[in-house]
Amino acid sequence: MTRANLLTKIQFFTLAIIANFATILVKAQEGAADLNVDVDVDKGGAAWMSNPLVWVIGALVLIVIIALVARGGGNRE
User: Fold this and answer.
1) Which of 19, 63, 69, 75 has the smallest number of Cβ neighbours within 10 A?
2) How many CA atoms lie within 13 A of 74 on its CB side?
3) What is the reported pTM?
C-alpha cells in the first residue's frame, strides 16, 4: 500500500468518525425531555424597539449624519 493511499484511507476514516459524531449530536437533541416551561414574552415598555419602521428611520438618520460629517471638510470661502 502506498503512502498516499494510506493517507486517503485515514482521511476517509476520520471523516466517517466526525460524521457519526455529528449524527449522534443531532439525535441527542431530538429526544430532549419536554419541560413544559411557560415563558412570558411580554415586552413591557420597550415594544417600540421591535418596530421595523423605527430601525429604518434610525438607519436613514445615521446615514445622513455620516454624510454631513464627511462633507463638512469641504472648502469654505
Assistant:
1) 75
2) 8
3) 0.38
